[in-house]
UniProtKB/TrEMBL annotation:
The organism's place on the tree of life at top rank: Bacteria
Its job: Allows the formation of correctly charged Gln-tRNA(Gln) through the transamidation of misacylated Glu-tRNA(Gln) in organisms which lack glutaminyl-tRNA synthetase. The reaction takes place in the presence of glutamine and ATP through an activated gamma-phospho-Glu-tRNA(Gln).
Reactions catalysed: L-glutamyl-tRNA(Gln) + L-glutamine + ATP + H2O = L-glutaminyl-tRNA(Gln) + L-glutamate + ADP + phosphate + H(+)
PROSITE patterns documented for this protein: AMIDASES
EC class of the enzyme, as a word: ligase
Name of the molecule in the record: Glutamyl-tRNA(Gln) amidotransferase subunit A
Gene for this chain: gatA
Classification via Pfam families: Amidase
Family of this protein: Belongs to the amidase family. GatA subfamily.
Keyword terms, alphabetized: ATP-binding, Ligase, Nucleotide-binding, Protein biosynthesis
């Protein structure tokens, strides 16, 4: 494995700027890495044919003295939920197989404008429905820590690509934990920004009131650098916040070198306790809190009594919005079309959607359509929205007492492929700690907190901040990361048995 693929995005950027490497060299190293390992990992659905040309253009512009962005020339992986003009955009579904978008998603356009080099599109659960990337129509992605285990979902492809050193950074989307839960099980960093803080324009919609695009990386600083590129107001997105955001990279650098934990009030939710959490996950969480406390943080027990209803509310709101958003894939406006000789439009539509959608997508469309139907709207969807309001109030009351909230990022380490595929309810419970963040629209970050004593697999800790205080998460995350990495004697991924070798 090339030494260049071991570098973080920030380290690559520094070497690109000082001229010790070129973007072509960095890009070729990552393409070679993809060729070497992705047959096992299956993080990518499509690898760009133009990456080296883009890299060469960045090198030429830099040589000509053009002032470029800090990440110019750094390779980037893109979750397949984000549309691109030069690569297929399928959202992990057969119904969109081969679809070429006439425009780039805003975050992709901003990444291109900043000089990042798209490597390819990463695998995902179909239309972002799942917690394991086993529901992709193109086959599952595997966890680089153990190829028999899942890499999380729905953005398991982006997390696995970063964890396997196939890309230094990636773009993901998070509807109920689809960036943070994969980060938890792959030993990477994942950030779900404040709702509206990053444009969703060009992100194939699952649940419009919950979806949020965000960064995936191996360090907190790398996520912050990418967040600086993709964030900010977008007039194409009606939910985009017209805010002036601070530099998240500056916040991460402050956290890494400053004494930001002293006096910080960290809330721990009483109702979560240890019930249902794998012992190794709970132990790692408590060890991280102790490390923060040793640096002067104050651990405060708080109550969030409505969090226990979050999963139930989410799995009414999300399917309802999904059934509406996916109605456009009808064989007429978007997607594949099956021929039904002598059939009506309804016959063609029915046959196409039956063949084009997978079981999990069908399950959620049926559930959502039922929840929105006459006579059931108030009982199900309307009631779920009321619970959502109560969860938002829980956060408001909690943040009146503490600066950030900490939870385990997920209840367990990576489970084995096939272990939960036939148990949707158990799969849904993987997002118990992440879902409330999306329901409330507040930001969350997952950073590696160590390896579980149970099985030696990665574990993450999640921090949650009030809306619009994403910078606080980068400060706190970087501060704890510095403590933990120092304790491990290096990045957590260096301890991975598969990744550390010559594979």
């Amino acid at each position: 494995m090339s030494d260049l693929t071991r570098l973080t995005a920030a380290e690559l950027a520094a070497r690109l700027t000082d001229g010790s490497i070129t973007s072509v060299e960095a890009t070729r190293a990552h393409l070679d890495r993809i060729a070497a390992v992705d047959g096992d990992v299956h993080a990518f659905l499509h690898v760009s044919d133009h990456a080296l040309d883009v890299a060469a253009d960045v090198d030429a512009r830099r040589a000509a003295g053009e002032q470029l962005g800090e990440l110019a020339g750094v390779p980037l992986a893109i979750k397949d939920v984000l549309v691109t003009t030069d690569m297929p955009s399928t959202s992990g579904s057969k119904i969109l197989e081969g679809f070429m978008s006439p425009y780039d998603a805003t975050v992709v356009a901003r990444a291109r404008a900043a000089g990042l080099v798209p490597l390819g599109k990463t695998n995902m659960d179909e239309f972002a429905m799942g917690s394991s990337t086993e529901h992709s129509a193109y086959g599952p992605t595997r966890n680089p820590w153990d190829l028999d285990r899942i890499p999380g979902g729905s953005g398991g492809g982006s997390a696995a690509a970063v964890a396997a050193f196939e890309a230094p950074i990636a773009l993901g989307s998070d509807t109920g934990g689809s960036i943070r839960q994969p980060a938890h099980v792959t030993g990477t960093v994942g950030v779900k920004p404040t709702y509206g803080g990053v444009s969703r324009y060009g992100s194939i919609a699952l649940a419009s009131s919950l979806d949020q695009v965000g960064p995936v990386s191996r360090t907190v600083l790398d996520s912050a650098l990418l967040h600086d590129v993709i964030g900010g107001h977008d007039p194409h997105d009606s939910t985009s916040l017209a805010e002036q955001w601070p530099s998240f990279a500056a916040a991460a650098r402050e956290g890494a070198r400053g004494d930001v934990l002293r006096g910080l009030k960290v809330g721990v939710i009483r109702e979560l306790a240890d019930v249902g959490f794998q012992p190794g996950v709970s132990a790692s969480f408590r060890a991280s809190l102790a490390a923060m406390e040793a640096q002067g943080a104050e651990i405060v027990e708080i109550s969030a009594p409505h969090f226990e209803y979050g999963v139930a509310a989410y799995y009414l709101i999300l399917p309802a919005e999904a059934s509406s958003n996916l109605a456009k894939f009808d064989s007429v406006r978007f997607g594949m079309r099956l021929d039904v000789p002598g059939g009506t439009v309804e016959d063609v539509m029915s046959a196409t959607r039956d063949a084009g959608f997978g079981d999990e997508v069908k399950r959620r469309i049926i559930l959502g359509t039922y929840a929105l139907s006459a006579g059931y709207y108030d009982a199900y969807y309307g009631s779920a929205q009321k619970v959502r309001t109560l969860i938002q109030r829980d956060f408001d009351e909690a943040f009146a007492q503490v600066d950030v909230i900490a939870t385990p990022s997920a209840p367990t380490t990576a489970f084995r492929l096939g272990e939960q595929i036939d148990d949707p309810l158990q799969m849904y419970l993987n997002d118990v700690t992440t879902i409330p963040v999306n329901l409330a629209g507040v930001p969350g970050i997952s950073i590696p907190s160590g390896l579980s004593d149970d099985d030696g697999l990665p574990v993450g800790i999640q921090f949650i901040a009030p809306a619009r205080q994403d910078a606080q998460l980068y400060r706190v995350g970087a501060a704890l990361e510095a403590i933990l990495v120092d304790g491990w004697g290096g990045p957590l991924l260096d301890r991975a048995p598969i990744l550390g070798g010559a594979r």
